């Protein structure tokens, strides 16, 4: 009897753990899919901005100054020193209670910074921030693109992954592993900023230790060390909130500093450390020769005028551009962007782009199809790209604010080829299958298989590749037969208890040792089921909001499957009686619209109500959601558009709102909307925009509080509303 009872308990426990694991896995899939979908949106928006800058500023038409003020790289960080003297004019009052820095820095300075940030005291004064950034910039100029380290001078080197503004994780790493020093060197592998609320404090600490221990503190660039990414993911907003008077100066200096960060680190000539990954075109010798400071944003290829189709003034490079891979997986020509938008017969926007950026976005999410290109080698050893234009005339039609302009396609520049090398290093992810394919989930970089890894390691006589860029539940993950290691150091990245953080220690034997941790005041007290439930609830809320944002498209897709139903539809897409479709049809319809590659059948019971016969009452997935403060003057279709693209709209607004006051004039609002509607290629009557602007000018002072405007287009969960009341 005792044995039977033990067997029954064991079976029950295994089933219980299996159910927990299923919930944990689909929760993780939801978080990652929504995160990568957001990155695709950012790449698409940035592709549009790039197109506007590269073309319309040269056509004598309306120059998009609101874009250029944020995206244009007007200064060369290797030569421009005009910002250096500005910080000297800033006075620090005697009443300032925070840390005071003087250069060169000492251990006392770094200790003061750590203490102040740990105790959440006053922010470091803007004068010291600017001086620290200036000194960091001067130091980074001297560094090569690829840093070479050796374990012969020390016992072990510590390697950390993404921190993403999570200061508590950085402080815990220092507590467990010790502060950086000559005896305790560190490599931080990019993505120090964005998402978290303490990005400013993190870069101050990292840059301070970099200056204090220049031979023992090493920082690689990540894909978020990019001023365009910072617009969407919070770092720009954080800087402006913490340093209103000098925020813009700090941001401009950070553009230079980020562009000067090294691209890779190699330990003992055996271990390659990059932020994202590699591709079948990655050439370390060629990367070593690139002038990295010219690429202030990996989302923005080097600007070249339309006249550059003749490739005038192409820079002589030290390295040899890598030729096509021996296995013929992919030619170099398919991976460079001409960044033109194409107006197809359907009227939708299209952009010919590289497989490393917008061309890899799934058809439902990207602005364009890819313009095909061929490549051949010229007599001087460089690649000449030949375009096979989609248009039979070879002319690209470009829609812009009701105007059509024709632009002849140009040959991608040598600078763009260098840019692509950097994009792959910062954005790529490993996959289990052989080959190298566009990274369709992120929309940037590529997926590289075990064969690509093996080929690169063999070519450069390396032992392993350490990269970051992806959140892992345990903080790290091995793939490609242990030759690729992913390390991620931001715990609780998606939600409290969602994942651990980790770091690696490498000694002379080059055998990695992993150390895990989790910053939390509450997680330790929670059971496994409670931790999974909290993360699951957060993920499902985000997914429900995604469903609501695509409500019209989903309803149209459901209608196509709900052929036999006899209920009545109203013009407002509201159903009198609940309609049902089969589970298979429901899952197919949702995936066709959202393209998140999620286990919809498994998620069915968590998102919709089921009929007695097991079919799906599909309208029930919208029941628990409603808009926060609906504005009468806005039509339902416009409300949905505003909600779906509210982040893009906010980015455009932030470009216009130069002082980050949160207020813009009526004309600036119209300018924001015109650019926004041009990005989406949707036409909204000017009168409708004026009505909308007047309706949200609540105090009739001619200015619009944009934060209040965005709040009106925020989805509210009904259960949350009930809890508040």
UniProtKB/TrEMBL annotation:
Keyword Hydrolase: yes
SMART domains found in the cross-reference section: EFh, PP2Ac
Polar residues biased stretches: 318-344
Keywords: Calcium, Hydrolase, Manganese, Metal-binding, Repeat
EF-hand domain residues: 644-679, 684-719
Ranges of compositional bias, category Basic and acidic residues: 363-375
Reaction catalyzed: O-phospho-L-threonyl-[protein] + H2O = L-threonyl-[protein] + phosphate; O-phospho-L-seryl-[protein] + H2O = L-seryl-[protein] + phosphate
Ranges where the record places region Disordered: 299-386
Sections of the chain in a coiled coil: none
InterPro entries listed in its UniProt record: Calcineurin-like_PHP, EF-hand-dom_pair, EF_Hand_1_Ca_BS, EF_hand_dom, Metallo-depent_PP-like, PPP_dom, PPP_phosphatase, Ser/Thr-Pase_EF-hand_contain
SUPFAM superfamilies cross-referenced by the UniProt entry: EF-hand, Metallo-dependent phosphatases
Catalytic class of the enzyme: hydrolase
Record protein name field: Serine/threonine-protein phosphatase
UniProt keyword annotation of tRNA processing present: no
Similarity comment: family membership: Belongs to the PPP phosphatase family.
Cofactor: Mn(2+)
Compositionally biased tracts (Low complexity): 345-360
Organism annotation: Polyodon spathula (North American paddlefish)
EC number(s) reported in the record: 3.1.3.16
One of the Pfam families matching this protein, by short name: PPP5
């Amino acid at each position: 009897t005792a044995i039977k009872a033990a067997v029954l308990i064991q079976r029950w426990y295994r089933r219980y753990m299996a159910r927990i694991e299923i919930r944990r896995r689909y929760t993780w899939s939801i978080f990652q899919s929504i995160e990568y979908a957001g990155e695709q949106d950012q790449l698409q928006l940035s592709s549009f901005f790039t197109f506007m800058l590269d073309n319309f500023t040269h056509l004598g038409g309306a120059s998009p100054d609101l874009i250029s003020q944020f995206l244009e790289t007007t200064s060369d960080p290797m030569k421009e020193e005009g910002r250096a003297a500005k910080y000297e004019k800033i006075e620090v009052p005697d009443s300032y209670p925070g840390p005071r820095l003087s250069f060169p820095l000492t251990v006392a300075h770094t200790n003061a910074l750590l203490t102040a940030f740990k105790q959440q005291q006053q922010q470091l004064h803007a004068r010291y921030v600017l001086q620290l950034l200036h000194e960091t910039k001067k130091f980074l100029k001297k560094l090569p693109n690829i840093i070479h380290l050796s374990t012969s001078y020390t016992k072990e080197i510590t390697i950390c992954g993404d921190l993403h503004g999570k200061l508590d994780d950085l402080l815990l790493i220092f507590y467990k592993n010790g502060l950086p020093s000559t005896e305790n060197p560190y490599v931080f592998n990019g993505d120090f900023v964005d998402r978290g609320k303490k990005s400013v404090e993190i870069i101050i600490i990292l840059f301070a230790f970099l200056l204090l221990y220049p031979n023992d503190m090493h920082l690689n660039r990540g894909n978020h060390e990019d001023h365009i990414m910072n617009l969407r993911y919070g770092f720009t907003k954080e800087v402006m909130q913490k340093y209103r008077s000098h925020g813009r100066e700090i941001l401009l200096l950070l553009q230079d500093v980020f562009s000067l960060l090294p691209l890779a680190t190699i330990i003992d000539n055996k271990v390659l450390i990059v932020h994202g990954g590699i591709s079948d075109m990655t050439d370390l010798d060629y990367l070593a020769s690139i002038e990295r400071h010219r690429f202030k944003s990996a989302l923005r290829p080097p600007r070249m005028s339309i006249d550059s189709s003749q490739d005038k003034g192409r820079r002589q490079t030290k390295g040899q551009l890598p030729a096509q891979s021996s296995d013929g997986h992919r030619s170099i020509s398919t991976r460079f962007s001409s960044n033109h938008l194409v107006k197809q017969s359907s009227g939708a926007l299209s952009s010919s782009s590289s497989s490393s950026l917008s061309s890899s976005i799934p058809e439902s999410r990207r602005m364009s199809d890819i313009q095909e290109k061929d490549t051949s080698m010229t007599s001087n050893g460089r690649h000449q790209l030949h375009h096979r234009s989609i248009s039979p005339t070879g002319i690209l039609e470009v829609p812009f604010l009701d105007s059509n302009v024709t632009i002849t396609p140009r040959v991608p520049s040598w600078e763009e080829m260098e840019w692509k090398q950097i994009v792959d290093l910062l954005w790529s992810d490993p996959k289990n299958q052989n080959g190298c394919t566009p990274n369709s989930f992120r929309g940037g970089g590529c997926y590289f298989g075990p064969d690509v890894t093996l080929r690169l390691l063999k070519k450069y006589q390396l032992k392993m590749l350490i990269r970051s860029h992806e959140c892992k539940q345990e903080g790290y993950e091995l793939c490609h037969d242990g030759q690729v290691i992913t390390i991620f150091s931001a715990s609780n990245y998606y939600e409290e208890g969602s994942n651990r953080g980790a770091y690696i220690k490498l000694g002379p034997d080059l055998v990695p040792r992993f150390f895990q941790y989790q910053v939390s005041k509450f997680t330790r007290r929670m059971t496994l089921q409670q931790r999974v439930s909290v993360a699951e609830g957060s993920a499902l809320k985000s997914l429900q909001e995604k469903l609501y944002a695509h409500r019209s498209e989903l309803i149209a897709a459901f209608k196509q499957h709900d052929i036999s139903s006899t209920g009545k539809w109203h013009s407002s897409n509201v159903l009198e009686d609940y309609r049902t479709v089969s589970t298979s049809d429901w899952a197919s319809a949702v995936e066709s619209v959202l393209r998140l590659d999620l286990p919809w059948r498994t998620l069915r019971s968590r998102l919709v109500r089921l009929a007695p016969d097991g079919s799906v009452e599909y309208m029930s997935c919208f029941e628990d959601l409603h808009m926060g403060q609906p504005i009468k003057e806005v039509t339902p279709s416009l409300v949905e558009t505003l909600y779906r693209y509210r982040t893009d709209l906010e980015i455009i607004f932030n470009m216009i709102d130069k002082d980050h006051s949160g207020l813009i004039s009526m004309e600036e609002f119209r300018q924001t909307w015109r650019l926004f509607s041009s990005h989406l290629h949707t036409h909204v009557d000017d009168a409708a925009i004026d009505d909308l602007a007047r309706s949200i000018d609540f105090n009739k002072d001619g200015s619009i509080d944009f934060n209040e405007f965005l709040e009106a287009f925020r989805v509210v969960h009904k259960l949350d509303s009930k809890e508040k009341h």
